[in-house]
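pls design
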């Protein structure tokens, strides 16, 4: 039934696909299907069909903040990678599809001498995931440049929501409490100097390379920053740098990262994260919370 629907509606799909290929942590079992709609209309048709048929689904962007369980996903992963249009609406306003990678968007904006999102350079996610989590780095958050977000609501209708109604805060947005699919976003930027923007982006990337374990699979920073503290400092203070469970390890380069040494399972990663949370709470009295989403 599903294969016929995909083929009749010309929706790209993968069958019995390893989820290791679709997350930056490189863990997880297989998905029954991964569907990749090419635009909002295809995505709406797909979601309506899945809902009407009672088929389990999960919306996935770049997979940089998600890990899938070792038993896999017995349903349809709706992946936004093909929602990748970038369109300039005027000199400082740009529409980006949810599937555009943040670094790709940053480079595109830099070439147009536009600033306002350059701190996102190097964040290993896409626009949709960045909006969902209100991604940020080096003092900036993606919400600072948002004008309005385009999404499919629970009835598969294409809608737009103004930034003031998105309830953005630290690693939070309204989308986390809604059964919506983000299809794109309109950003408002400022004109800047192309060379200065590039220099800032290159500096950020160099700092990432120097301080973060980018040579190992991970989901980026593994823990949210507790109010008044830094998770990495707390973890290091508790002597957890280098701590391992199976193939998962607290990075020796940056203790805020859990990395996959090569053969980690989802079970390893979750067990290690929970151990870190427990030890930090016992030793410091501070509660830290996983940033990654476990499906």
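designed seq:
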């Amino acid at each position: 039934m599903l294969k016929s629907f995909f083929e009749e509606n010309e929706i790209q799909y993968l069958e019995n696909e390893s989820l290791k290929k679709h997350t930056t942590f490189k863990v997880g079992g297989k998905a029954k299907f991964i569907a990749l709609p090419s635009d909002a209309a295809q995505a709406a048709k797909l979601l309506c069909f899945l809902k009407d048929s009672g088929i389990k689904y999960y919306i996935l962007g770049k997979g940089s903040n998600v890990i899938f369980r070792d038993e896999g996903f017995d349903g349809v992963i709706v992946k936004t990678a093909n929602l990748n249009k970038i369109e300039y609406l005027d000199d400082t306003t740009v529409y980006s599809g949810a599937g555009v990678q943040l670094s790709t968007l940053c480079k595109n904006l830099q070439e147009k001498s536009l600033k306002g999102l350059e701190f996102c350079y190097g964040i290993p996610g896409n626009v949709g995931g960045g909006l969902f989590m209100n991604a940020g780095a080096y003092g900036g958050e993606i919400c600072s440049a948002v004008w309005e977000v385009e999404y499919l609501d629970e009835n598969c209708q294409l809608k737009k929501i103004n930034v003031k109604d998105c309830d953005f805060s630290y690693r939070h947005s309204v989308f986390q409490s809604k059964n919506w699919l983000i299809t794109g976003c309109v950003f408002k930027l400022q004109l800047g100097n192309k060379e200065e923007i590039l220099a800032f982006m290159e500096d950020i990337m160099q700092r990432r390379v120097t301080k973060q374990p980018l040579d190992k699979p991970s989901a980026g920073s593994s823990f949210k920053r507790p109010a008044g503290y830094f998770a990495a400092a707390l973890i290091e203070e508790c002597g957890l740098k280098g701590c391992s469970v199976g193939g998962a390890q607290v990075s020796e380069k940056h203790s805020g990262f859990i990395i996959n040494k090569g053969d980690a399972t989802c079970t390893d990663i979750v067990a290690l994260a929970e151990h870190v949370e427990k030890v930090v709470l016992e030793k410091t009295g501070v509660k830290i919370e996983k940033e990654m989403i476990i499906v």
